[in-house]
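Allow me, if you will, to draw on your knowledge of protein folds for a short while. Thank you for your consideration; the sequence and its tokens are set out here:
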Amino acid sequence: MKTALQKVVADDQVAVTITGDPAKGPASPMRPDLLQAVREVTNRIWPGVPTVPIMVMGATDGRYLRMAGIPTYGVQGFFMDRDDIRFHGRDERLGVQSFYEGQTFLYELVKALSKAGN
């Protein structure tokens, strides 16, 4: 990683120092009950859309929760234009309809997961 950063900076006047020891958090277990709740809410809002678990590269603060023994999951619920992906840029954006549908999805998912027995 250090070599790659030095190559990107391309300035021998700049020192690149890696501090700390990045620790990996353990993987969260795949929970069928959680996936089922996501599947049910998805089918209610977007009938016929498949629910597929994936792993996204990058990092989240969930690592610290997992390291403390708290399983952590990311569920999106937003649709984006494949030809207009602008993650974390100064012009990051999401369609208005997708924003409101995503908020509805997350609200319904929290309700489903907060019922007695979950």
The mean pLDDT is 86. The chain is about 40% helix and 0% strand. The radius of gyration is 19 Å. Residues 23-113 form a domain with the DNA polymerase; domain 1 fold (CATH 1.10.150.900).
